[in-house]
Amino acid sequence: MHNDIQEVLYSQEAIHQKVTELGAAISRDYEGRNPLVICVLKGAFIFMADLSKNISIPIELDFMAVSSYGNSTRSSGEVKIVKDLDVSVDGRDVLIVEDIIDSGLTLSYLIDVLERRNALSVNVVALFDKPGRRTVDLNADYTGFTIPDAFVVGYGLDYAEKYRNLPYVGVLKPEIYSS
Ligand SMILES: O=P(O)(O)OC[C@H]1O[C@H](OP(=O)(O)OP(=O)(O)O)[C@H](O)[C@@H]1O
Ligand SMILES: [Mg+2]
């Protein structure tokens, strides 16, 4: 698994430090509001687990599974809800937790769905942002790292369902997905 990585971009320690900072900023901004924090599965599962431990105010958690990449390194352009939320967002302050923003299609679709369901506010925290690949105009409210245009894996992020369990984030060797 480690042999398939061309370059480590962010170590476990660097990610831990950033997640701590994001948790502190969210705790400050949402003081007194009891937000519904939504994890976008599968990619955000590790980020959600670590981030939630660094949020010091009361929150509620829910999970949504959304997929558009399948076994490719490019978005299919079709965002599918594989698992929906268990609770209503009507009148709630919602914080979407995403691992990465690439084309922006997943988040623009999700934000639209949650706004149409009458969420009071919809904000986004994304650990990684790849602005060079955007096809829709979209920015996170909280961003961890801005990264170059390369396909990255680890810390929840996959290629064809593999590498999610790498503890760091790295660039996958192109021969892995072009072979
Ligand atoms: O900005 P975008 O181009 O839409 O890309 C970002 C989305 O793509 C990935 O999900 P994927 O569809 O691979 O599902 P997964 O989380 O189960 O891996 C990633 O986890 C984000 O949710
Ligand atoms: Mg994926």
TrEMBL record:
Keyword match Metal-binding: yes
Subcellular location: Cytoplasm
Cofactor(s) named in the record: Mg(2+)
Phosphoribosyltransferase domain residues: 9-159
Alphabetical list of InterPro entries matching this protein: HGPRT (IPR050408), Hxn_phspho_trans (IPR005904), PRTase-like (IPR029057), PRTase_dom (IPR000836)
Reaction(s) catalysed by this chain's protein: GMP + diphosphate = guanine + 5-phospho-alpha-D-ribose 1-diphosphate; IMP + diphosphate = hypoxanthine + 5-phospho-alpha-D-ribose 1-diphosphate
Main location group: cytoplasm
Keywords on record: Cytoplasm, Glycosyltransferase, Magnesium, Metal-binding, Nucleotide-binding, Purine salvage, Transferase
MF-aspect GO terms: glycosyltransferase activity
The enzyme's E.C. designation: 2.4.2.8
Pathway: Purine metabolism; IMP biosynthesis via salvage pathway; IMP from hypoxanthine: step 1/1; Purine metabolism; GMP biosynthesis via salvage pathway; GMP from guanine: step 1/1
Entries under CDD domains matching the protein: PRTases_typeI
Similarity annotation: Belongs to the purine/pyrimidine phosphoribosyltransferase family.
Function of the molecule: Purine salvage pathway enzyme that catalyzes the transfer of the ribosyl-5-phosphate group from 5-phospho-alpha-D-ribose 1-diphosphate (PRPP) to the N9 position of the 6-oxopurines hypoxanthine and guanine to form the corresponding ribonucleotides IMP (inosine 5'-monophosphate) and GMP (guanosine 5'-monophosphate), with the release of PPi.
Name of the protein in its database record: Hypoxanthine phosphoribosyltransferase
